[in-house]
Design a protein that fits this description.
- The chain is an alpha/beta fold and 194 residues long.
- It has helices spanning 3-14, 39-42, 48-56, 74-84, 130-141, 160-169, 181-193; strands at 16-17, 24-25, 31-32, 35-36, 65-69, 92-96, 109-111, 118-126, 145-154, 174-180.
- The protein has a domain at 47-180: Rossmann fold.
- The protein is built from seven helices and ten strands.
- A hairpin with a 5-residue loop joins strand 2 (24-25) and strand 3.
- The chain is globular and about 50 Å long.
C-alpha cells in the first residue's frame, strides 16, 4: 500500500465522521451530513510519518520553513519538519497565532522563521479557506515570502479552493490539497462495501 493510500485509510477511519441520518454543526453555523475531525489523524502516531513524507514532497525546494494556523496546522508542520531532518531539504516549522502576542516581540508568528524566509503555509482542512488566507496574510505582514499553501483535506465547499488560489496568485504561490472530500467519501463507501 502506498503512503498516500495508507494515510487516506487512516483519515477515513479516524477523522471522517459520517453517519447516515446524523447532522454535524460546522463552524460556519451550517449543518452537514459529515464532519472531518482532522486532529484525530494529525495527532495519531501512525499518521505523523505519512503526513511528514507526503507533504514534504509538495514543498518547493527553496522553502526553509512550513507552518500555519495554530492548532490545526501545528502537528502537520511538526511532522514535515521532523521528516525533513533526514533529507537534503530540511525545513523548520512555525505557528501562526490567532491574535498577536501581547508581550515580547508582539508577533503573529511563533517558531523558527525570520523576515525574508521563504515558507509554505499548511492547514488541516479548508472549507471557505478563510483561516488559510488569514495565515498567508499574517506571514506577509511578518516579512515572510509564501511560496505555496498545502491543505491536508479540501472539503470542496464554499468556494474555498478558489478563494485560496486567488489570494495566493498575487504572490505567485500555488495551492495543493493532498486529499479532497471526494477522496474521503469514495474510500468511506469502499470500506462500507467490504
Amino acid at each position: 500500500m502506498s503512503p498516500r493510500d495508507e494515510l487516506l485509510g487512516i483519515l477515513v477511519r479516524r477523522s471522517y465522521l459520517r453517519e447516515p441520518g446524523k447532522q454535524f454543526l460546522l463552524a460556519s453555523g451550517r449543518l452537514s451530513d459529515y464532519y472531518i475531525e482532522a486532529s484525530l489523524t494529525t495527532t495519531y502516531h501512525a499518521a505523523l510519518p505519512l503526513i511528514g513524507e507526503l507533504l514534504h514532497a509538495l514543498i518547493p525546494a527553496e522553502a526553509v520553513a512550513v507552518g500555519g494556523p495554530t492548532m490545526g496546522a501545528d502537528p502537520i508542520a511538526a511532522a514535515v519538519a521532523y521528516h525533513s531532518a533526514d533529507t537534503a531539504r530540511r525545513v523548520s516549522w512555525f505557528s501562526v497565532r490567532k491574535t498577536a502576542k501581547q508581550h515580547g516581540a508582539r508577533r503573529w508568528l511563533e517558531g523558527s522563521v525570520t523576515p525574508g524566509d521563504r515558507v509554505v503555509v499548511v492547514e488541516d482542512v479548508i472549507t471557505s479557506g478563510g483561516a488559510l488566507i488569514d495565515a498567508v496574510r499574517k506571514c506577509g505582514e511578518e516579512g515572510l515570502q509564501v511560496l505555496a499553501a498545502v491543505a491536508l483535506v479540501d472539503r470542496e465547499e464554499d468556494g474555498g479552493r478558489a478563494r485560496v488560489e486567488k489570494a495566493l496568485a498575487a504572490a505567485g504561490a500555488r495551492f495543493h490539497a493532498l486529499f479532497t472530500r471526494t477522496d474521503l467519501e469514495h474510500a468511506w463507501q469502499a470500506a462500507r462495501e467490504r
